[in-house]
Amino acid sequence: MLESMRTTAEEPILTQPHLHSSKKESVNREVNNNLAGFVLPGYSTFPQIGLFSYVKKNFSGISKATLVRICTIVLLSIGAFGVYILQSDFEKIHTERMNSFWGLTLIVITTSLLLYRIIFFLYHLFLYLGYKPIQSVSDDQLPTCTVIVPAYNEGKQVWQTLLSLADSNFPEKKLQLIAIDDGSKDDTWYWIKKAKEQLGDRLEIYQQPKNKGKRHALYHGFKLATGEIFVTVDSDSIVKPDTLRNLVSPFITNENCGAVAGNVHVLNKAKAIIPKMLNVSFIYNFEFMRSAQSKLGSVLCTPGALAAYRKGAVLDCLPNWINQTFMGQPSDIGEDRAMTNMILQQGYEVLFQKNAIVLTNVPETYKGLYKMFIRWERSNVRENIEMAQFIFKKFRNGSKTGTRLLFLNQWLNIITVYPFIILMMIFVLTHPLMFLSSTLFSIIMLSSFPVIFYAKKYNVKGSVWAYSYSILYAFGLFWVTPYSIATVKKGGWLTRDLPKKK
C-alpha cells in the first residue's frame, strides 16, 4: 500500500512543481484519501479524515517542548523494541567475536571498561551520599569579599547581574563590587554605568580600551581587589540573595580551602529546548559529580559563572596564570580550569557549595552549543596535560588517591575517544539497525540515573530532558570531543563572535 502511495500520489508533486493550484489541491486530496485507513500502532483506522488531517488536528496545539519529549519517549521505545527483536542477531555477533582472537580481545576490553564505569559510578555515589554543604557563618565571621564581573557584549544583562549581586544578603561594608567592560562593541558600557548610577560607591567600574579576553579582564580585577576572598561572576548570570555568604563560608571553616565552586543552574531554560536539556545536565554534573569531588577536596574546575578564591592562593599563581601558554601560544580559554589546577598544585583543597546557586545563560542554538563544548573540551585536554605534571607528586598533605583517580578517569575518557569512534563507524556501516537500537537502549540504561536524580530533587516532567540531551549528544555532538582533541592547539572564545541582540 505504501509503495502504491509513492507512485500515485507523491511522484506527481515531485516531478510537476508547476501544477496549477487546483490540480495541486486535487493531488493533495488524493494523498490524503490514500492515507485514509492507514493504521498506526495503538490507533484505529482513520476512514474519513486521513493521516495528515489527523496529525494536524491532534498535534497542532502541542508545544515544541512537549513534542520533543514525546519523540524522545518514542525513540527510546523503538530502541528497546529493536534490541528485543534483534536478540538473535546480537547473539550471532557475540558468538562470532568469541570465536576470534580480536573479537574476544574487544569483548574483554569493553567488558572491563564497563565494569570500571560501574565501580567508578558507585564510588561517586558513595562520596555523594557523604557530602553536605557548609552552612553560612555569621556576619561577624564573614570575610571581606571582592566580586569581579568581567563583561563583553552582554548588553542589559550585565546590569541585572550587578543588581542581583548588590541585593545579596552580605554586609555592605565587607563587599567590594568591580565591573570591567572588556572592550565591548555594544551597549554593555552604558548598562554598567547605569548600574553605577543606582549603586553609587558600592560599585567600581572600569573599561578596557580594547577587547583582550576574559582572562585579562579578571586579571585587571584581581589587581584592584582588596577583599580576603575573590569571587568571579559571569556577566550573564544572576545570584540568589544568600549565594555569596554561602559561597565564602568554607574559607572560614576550613583553613586549607583555596577555592570554592558555585552551583550553576540555567537562567534561560524557559526560552528554548536546548537550555531545558542543559539545565538537567548542569544540575546532575554539579549537584552529583561535584558533590562527590568536593568530598575529596578536589573539585577539578571552579566554573566561570560563580567561583571564589582565597586571595593568597590567587596572588601566588597570578603571574603564571596570566602568562600561561600552550604549544607556544598564549592561553585565551579555560581560565577557570587553569586557576583551579594552579590552586590544587599549591596544596589547597577545592570545594563545592550546593547552597551557593547562580543562574546563568547558556546557548539556545545547536551552533552556540557545539562551540561552547569545543572550548570546554580543548581546555579539558590542555589542563589534564598540566595536571599530569604534579598529580603524582606530593602536592599536598593527606590522601591524594581520590584526586589521582579523578585525574586518571579524565584521561581514560580522552584516550578512548578515537578507538570508540572507529568502532562506532564500523558498526554503523555493517549493522545500522543494530547500532541504532543498541545506542538508544544504552541511553535508557546510562541516563536513567540522572533522570531519577533530577526527578527526586526537582520534578518528574523536567527529568525526561536528560534522555533528550543524551540522544542529542549521541547523534549530534559525538564529534565534538575528537574534533577538540585534534584541534587542541587552537584558541579563541568561539561564542564571542556570535551576534548578540540588544
Automatic annotation (TrEMBL):
<dbReference type="GO" id="GO:0050501">
    <property type="term" value="F:hyaluronan synthase activity"/>
</dbReference>
<feature type="transmembrane region" description="Helical">
    <location>
        <begin position="101"/>
        <end position="126"/>
    </location>
</feature>
<dbReference type="Pfam" id="PF00535">
    <property type="entry name" value="Glycos_transf_2"/>
</dbReference>
<feature type="transmembrane region" description="Helical">
    <location>
        <begin position="405"/>
        <end position="429"/>
    </location>
</feature>
<dbReference type="GO" id="GO:0005886">
    <property type="term" value="C:plasma membrane"/>
</dbReference>
<keyword id="KW-0808">Transferase</keyword>
<feature type="transmembrane region" description="Helical">
    <location>
        <begin position="67"/>
        <end position="86"/>
    </location>
</feature>
<comment type="similarity">
    <text>Belongs to the NodC/HAS family.</text>
</comment>
<feature type="transmembrane region" description="Helical">
    <location>
        <begin position="435"/>
        <end position="455"/>
    </location>
</feature>
<protein>
    <recommendedName>
        <fullName>N-acetylglucosaminyltransferase</fullName>
    </recommendedName>
</protein>
<dbReference type="InterPro" id="IPR001173">
    <property type="entry name" value="Glyco_trans_2-like"/>
</dbReference>
<keyword id="KW-0812">Transmembrane</keyword>
<keyword id="KW-1003">Cell membrane</keyword>
<dbReference type="GO" id="GO:0085029">
    <property type="term" value="P:extracellular matrix assembly"/>
</dbReference>
<feature type="transmembrane region" description="Helical">
    <location>
        <begin position="467"/>
        <end position="486"/>
    </location>
</feature>
<dbReference type="GO" id="GO:0030213">
    <property type="term" value="P:hyaluronan biosynthetic process"/>
</dbReference>
<keyword id="KW-1133">Transmembrane helix</keyword>
<feature type="domain" description="Glycosyltransferase 2-like">
    <location>
        <begin position="146"/>
        <end position="314"/>
    </location>
</feature>
<keyword id="KW-0472">Membrane</keyword>
<keyword id="KW-0328">Glycosyltransferase</keyword>
<dbReference type="InterPro" id="IPR029044">
    <property type="entry name" value="Nucleotide-diphossugar_trans"/>
</dbReference>
